[in-house]
Specification:
By secondary structure, the protein is an all-alpha fold. The chain contains 3 helices and no strands. The termini are far apart.
Length: 66
């Protein structure tokens, strides 16, 4: 038995409406959301990029004895 969560149900309904309005094309959904964001004047801060270690930073540095 699954417990209903009204907040999640509302989010699912919004997602379905956005997808229906955009003919189930995620790129159209995202473009529409960007347009709404720009029109609102409240631009959101982008998520920070995840750290990807470079090849050089993964190599162990050896300390040579004098």
């Amino acid at each position: 038995m699954m417990t209903l969560n009204p907040i999640l149900e509302e989010l699912y309904a919004i997602r379905e409406k956005l997808l229906a309005d955009a003919d189930s094309d995620i790129q159209k959904v995202l473009a529409g959301l960007r347009k709404r964001e720009a029109a609102s004047g409240r631009l959101l801060k982008p998520a920070p990029r995840q750290f990807t270690p470079s090849v050089q930073s993964t190599k162990k540095k050896r300390i040579m004895a004098p």
